[in-house]
């Protein structure tokens, strides 16, 4: 059974993911007049929007399958979408000529595009690694696995607090605390989104406090993961309690379709920006609204067709009942 509170959380977060990429594209194109405004909005959104997805994934991570069935399931739900949509993105870059400066011009360039992981697809790879590692700990450590996962999460935070160079694993280490926090708090999943007024206010206050600290100290602060974790908890607590409102139900509907939006939005937001610029439109408001709408609406339309044809798994979106 789905939990609408967390669908609402994901719906709110995916809107911020799409808008965040629209905003970054506009900043790179020089369409945001104020550098301070561009940076403030970017930092405010990027503090927590992807940690939310890692945290919620952790909350619902309770694998029961054997090792082979588990790996097969994760390969189909995470690695297959990564490969398929990396190939789609690579092909579009090659055909449009936009990939020439990255050396993407022929078939072999497209086929090799997924390695190393690029674009938004890093999330799928990192989530795959974290889930496989957590599964191994749960199987090997038995009833001691919460303690092992807690130590692993604290160690990941310590890497940045102490300024240790994590090398190529930095993106995994950076996001590990959010996923592991979700796993460790899974038993409190219902408590985090109980529809009571006081927890709603507390959650909102925690979120705002984390944002203020982050905007003051910047992304370079060693404790940024703690700020991100607090912002994530505050966002989850606040958005989850909107599930019984009109807005919350709309977000929950959107939250059930986040994979299609995530996989496709970067192509559409960039394409919308390029098209508007070619037509001579440079207004910040128009670009922000049009890019966000296209990044959400087109994937929803594609998903509707794919689901109706029962091709959700093949498309990498997952098949809904």
Automatic annotation (TrEMBL):
Where does this one sit in the cell? Cell membrane
InterPro entries, per database record? Acyl_transf_3_dom (IPR002656)
For this entry, the protein name equals: Acyltransferase
Family to which this protein belongs? Belongs to the acyltransferase 3 family.
The alphabetized UniProt keywords are: Acyltransferase, Cell membrane, Membrane, Transferase, Transmembrane, Transmembrane helix
Listed GO cellular component terms? plasma membrane
For the Acyltransferase domain, which residue ranges apply? 6-301
Q: Which GO terms describe its molecular function?
A: O-acetyltransferase activity
Q: How does it sit in the membrane?
A: Multi-pass membrane protein
Tell me, in one coarse class, where this protein mainly resides: membrane
Membrane-spanning regions, if any? Answer: 12-32, 44-63, 75-100, 120-137, 144-162, 197-215, 221-239, 260-279, 285-306
Is Transferase included in the keywords of this UniProt record? yes
User: Among its keywords, does the record have Lipid metabolism?
Assistant: no
Which is a GO BP term held by this UniProt record? enterobacterial common antigen biosynthetic process
Q: Origin organism of this chain?
A: Thalassobius vesicularis
């Amino acid at each position: 059974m789905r939990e609408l509170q967390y669908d609402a959380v994901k719906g709110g977060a995916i809107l911020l993911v799409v808008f965040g990429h629209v905003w970054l594209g506009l900043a790179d194109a020089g369409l945001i007049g104020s550098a301070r405004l561009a940076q403030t909005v970017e930092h405010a959104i990027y503090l927590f929007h992807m940690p939310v997805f890692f945290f919620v994934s952790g909350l619902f991570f309770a694998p029961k399958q054997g090792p082979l069935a588990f790996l097969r399931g994760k390969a189909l739900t995470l690695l297959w979408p990564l490969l398929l949509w990396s190939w789609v993105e690579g092909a579009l870059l090659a055909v449009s000529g936009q990939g020439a400066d990255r050396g993407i011009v022929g078939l072999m360039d497209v086929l090799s595009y997924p390695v190393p992981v690029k674009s938004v697809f890093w999330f799928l790879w990192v989530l795959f690694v974290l889930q496989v590692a957590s599964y191994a700990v749960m199987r090997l450590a038995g009833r001691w696995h919460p303690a092992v996962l807690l130590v692993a999460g604290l160690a990941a935070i310590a890497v940045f607090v102490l300024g240790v160079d994590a090398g190529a694993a930095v993106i995994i280490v950076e996001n590990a605390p959010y996923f592991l926090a979700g796993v460790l708090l899974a038993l409190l999943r219902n408590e985090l989104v109980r529809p009571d007024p006081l927890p709603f206010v507390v959650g909102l206050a925690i979120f705002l406090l984390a944002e203020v600290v982050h905007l003051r100290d910047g992304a370079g602060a060693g404790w940024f993961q703690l700020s991100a974790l607090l912002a994530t908890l505050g966002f989850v607590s606040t958005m989850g309690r909107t599930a019984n409102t009109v807005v919350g139900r709309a977000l929950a509907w959107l939250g059930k379709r986040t994979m299609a939006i995530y996989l496709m939005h970067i192509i559409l937001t960039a394409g919308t920006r390029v098209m508007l610029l070619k037509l001579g439109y440079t207004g910040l408001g128009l670009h922000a609204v049009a890019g966000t709408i296209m990044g959400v609406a087109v994937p929803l339309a594609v998903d509707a067709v794919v689901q109706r044809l029962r091709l959700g798994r093949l498309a990498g979106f997952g098949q809904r009942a």
